[in-house]
Design brief:
The complex is a heterodimer of chains A (224) and B (479). Chain A is built from 9 helices and 5 strands, in the order ααααβαβαβαβαβα. With 224 residues, chain A is an alpha/beta fold. Chain A has a 5-stranded parallel β-sheet with strand order 2-1-3-4-5, with helices on both faces. Chain B contains 18 helices and 20 strands. In chain B, the strands form 6 sheets. In chain B, strands 2-3-1-12 form a 4-stranded mixed β-sheet. Chain B has a 4-stranded mixed β-sheet with strand order 8-7-20-19. A 4-stranded parallel β-sheet of chain B has the order 9-10-11-13. In chain B, helix 5 links the parallel strand 9 and strand 10. In chain B, helix 3 packs across helix 9, helix 11 runs parallel beside helix 12 and helix 12 crosses helix 17. Chain B starts with 10 loop residues before the first helix and ends with a helix. The chains are: A alpha/beta (224), B alpha/beta (479).
């Protein structure tokens, strides 16, 4: 059993979503995350073990490698994608066993800004780490953020901006949250090319991270 | 793939330089201070004035000799994995430069007289750094003066595995050094197949070949050991102040030396190489990192590769500076010019202060600059896959390429350069990692290499033999 889970972890690390994955030449045709997860389900391994000792164990190594400058963002993303393939297969079983993720994140790029590469990265990475992510897209108005927080009650709001000209919108959203008296019910993370740690503190955000992998760490830290 | 060549000279310019060089050799001739060499050249058709030791080369002799020469130069390492083959159109290699007398202490940063332990340290770093392919000597102050070259060779043979470039003080010293090479390689035949050293001899500009250097050229030729001819016409003092005149003179000096080498030992591998310096008209010093040096690096590479078809050496990594701000600029600028000119061997990694000093920190930084130059030298590959039509169609408007297999596979194949000691992170992250400057990062990398990198020792019997050769040399040559 543990061999199979280790193989799932290894294939997550290699970004091998299925047997046709091109990332490890000498393994082409061999089972990837999809086939191995199927097999694990068939063998009756518990959903929790497949997730924690297989998929997430692999992703954990990926995060560490990225932090040590051993791999690059695209490699983290193909691993996250491979993990996603495994999770999709497990979804019916997760619902059955009541293991649905409880950490909800609402994410979006602020008003006046149409950039989303960084935001999408963070979104993907959070999903890969078992966060339930609601992505509001780009050019999101303050009103929409407030409305969604009230309706969906997420633990975290993640705000993104790339343009210096839209940076002030981060503060506008945070001020609105305070005005609505929501600031104790939610942690606010900000990020994007022009944002610094100093600026994040200054506008009253709870968290800031330099990149998508650190953003996941920060999100976990904020929920402790 | 199309290499990004830079062409400073027109076809007509190249021809004119070549023809001027032939005129210099035919009419002015060279002072060849070596009777046997003059005789050989006379027999081959040169006009010789033995009284004044002047040899005048007929153009046909020069052109025939040069045409018959090797166009591939092998700089072999101790093991084949360290071999570099220099060839026109292939990616370039790089080496350190020999002859410095000072060393920048890695721990204290002090500029001081070099010691043999410094050379050991430097050799370990060169062994570990992948973009530096051959190593030169360091003139150390704590070993016997008359045999310092032999002691250095000993250290380089034992402490690192890449090709060694070495100039012997005298022909006698070279004989001992060849004995050492034979001890490592095992036989004369094996040494010839994979020469683990390339020697250096000098032509003194203008137009003078000293006796001992010729002895060394002929001896190296007998063993098939590649020889670099060091020709350093100093623009404005040892050659015309005009760059075209310096190019023609240096080229003539090289063609003359090549002709002698081919007449004496046909097939003797000699790279296309001369290294003009620029006379500092305030002090008379020789400068190596000026804009004229940069152009000469590119022009010599062009002349050697395009006109003669030789792999070209050049001094793109020499610099006159002692502080990082200046050395970095000169090396990046001149190295790039040489690289784009099509040069095959960039000389000067780790060397600063007009080759007076070696800096281990500079070596680590140079390894990084070389990495970037290699990326540039590979150029832009254009084919259906790299044009990316299919992947763009898949990703579509507003999509992202980051998580695509096309991205991952090309990233792993080296499409993007990944820095080792340069910082490409934004300020916050840079501060969070300790706000380290380039020199600090390079120093840490050097210290890390020195504490972890191991060089496999030579077999015990070889080490014993090397030791006894050095001892014999000391007994005979040290007064």
């Amino acid at each position: 059993m543990s061999d199979l889970l280790e193989a799932i972890a290894e294939n997550v690390i290699q970004g091998r979503g299925d047997k046709n994955s091109p990332f490890v030449k000498e393994k082409e045709g061999e089972p990837g995350v999809k086939e191995l997860t199927h097999q694990a389900i068939k063998e009756g391994i518990s959903v929790e073990d497949i997730i924690n000792k297989g998929l997430l164990a692999g992703m954990d190594v990926v995060g560490k490698k990225f932090k040590n400058d051993e791999i690059f963002i695209p490699e983290v993303l193909i691993s996250a994608e491979a993990l996603g393939i495994g999770m999709k297969l497990l979804k019916p079983l997760i619902v059955e066993s009541g293991l649905t993720p409880t950490n909800k994140v609402v994410i979006g790029t602020v008003k006046g800004d149409l950039h989303d590469i960084g935001k999408n990265l963070v979104s993907m990475m959070l999903q890969g780490s078992q966060f339930d992510v609601l992505d509001l897209g780009v050019d999101v108005s303050t009103e929409k953020f407030i409305k969604t927080i009230k309706q969906k009650k997420p633990q975290i709001l993640a705000l993104s901006c790339l343009l210096t000209s839209s940076m002030h919108e981060l503060k506008t959203v945070i001020d609105a949250i305070k005005k609505e008296g929501l600031q104790n019910k939610i942690k606010i993370m900000v990020g994007g090319a022009p944002v610094t740690k100093e600026y994040a503190n200054q506008i009253g955000a709870d968290g800031f991270a330099e990149d998508a992998v650190l953003a996941v760490e920060k999100a976990k830290e904020l929920l402790k | 793939m199309t290499k990004p060549y830079l062409r400073l000279l027109s076809e007509d310019d190249l021809k004119k330089i070549h023809e001027t060089s032939l005129r210099i050799l035919e009419n002015t001739g060279m002072l060849i201070d070596h009777k046997e060499a003059r005789n050989m050249l006379q027999e081959a058709g040169a006009k010789v004035d033995h009284k004044n030791k002047i040899v005048k080369f007929p153009p046909t002799l020069v052109e025939e000799s040069v045409n018959n020469m090797e166009r591939t130069i092998l700089h072999a390492g101790r093991e084949p994995e360290y071999d570099v083959e220099l060839k026109v159109g292939e990616d370039f290699a790089s080496r350190t430069a020999g002859g410095a007398t000072s060393y920048i202490d890695l721990k204290t940063g002090n500029y001081r007289r070099a010691r043999i332990t410094d050379l050991e340290e430097f050799a370990t770093l060169v062994d570990a750094l992948s973009n530096v392919n051959a190593i030169g000597t360091l003139h150390c102050g704590d070993i016997p003066e008359q045999t310092a070259d032999i002691h250095c060779m000993h250290t380089l043979l034992e402490k690192q595995r890449k090709n060694i470039v070495h100039n012997a003080f005298t022909i006698k010293n070279l004989e001992y050094m060849i004995e050492m090479m034979l001890a490592v390689r095992g036989s004369r035949e094996k040494l010839k197949q994979r020469p683990l050293v390339h020697t250096i001899i000098a032509v003194l500009s203008p137009l003078y070949m000293p006796e001992d250097d010729i002895d060394q050229l002929l001896l190296a030729g007998k063993y098939g050991i590649p020889t670099g001819i060091v020709i350093m016409p100093s623009v404005g003092s040892a050659s015309p102040i005009t760059l075209a005149g310096t190019l023609a003179q240096g080229n003539a000096e090289l063609l003359g030396a090549m002709t002698l080498a081919q007449v004496a030992n046909p097939g003797h591998p000699i790279p296309y190489f001369y290294e003009p310096t620029v006379t500092d008209m305030r002090s008379g010093d020789s400068l190596m990192g000026t804009p004229e040096s940069a152009m000469l690096c590119a022009a010599i590479a062009q002349l050697g590769t395009e006109f003669y078809g030789f792999p070209c050496n050049g001094i793109g990594f020499l610099t006159d500076g002692v502080i990082c701000e200046q050395t970095l600029f000169q090396k990046a600028c001149n190295g790039l010019m040489q690289c784009l000119g099509g040069g095959s061997l960039i000389i000067g990694a780790g060397v600063i202060d007009s080759v007076l000093a070696i800096s281990p920190i500079q070596l680590v930084i140079d390894d990084e600059i070389l990495g970037m130059l290699h990326r540039i030298s590979r150029g832009i590959e254009v084919n259906d896959d790299t044009l990316g039509l299919a992947i763009l169609d898949k990703v579509g408007p507003r999509g992202s390429f980051l998580a695509q297999a096309h991205t991952v596979l090309h990233l792993r194949a080296g499409e993007l350069y990944n820095p080792q000691v340069f910082n490409w992170e934004k300020r916050d992250k840079w501060i969070s990692k300790g706000s380290k400057g380039l020199e600090q990062r390079a120093k840490e990398k050097a210290l890390d290499i020195l504490s972890t990198h191991k060089v496999e020792p030579l077999p015990d019997d070889v080490r014993k033999e090397l030791k006894s050769i050095v001892k014999k040399a000391d007994e005979e040559l040290v007064s």
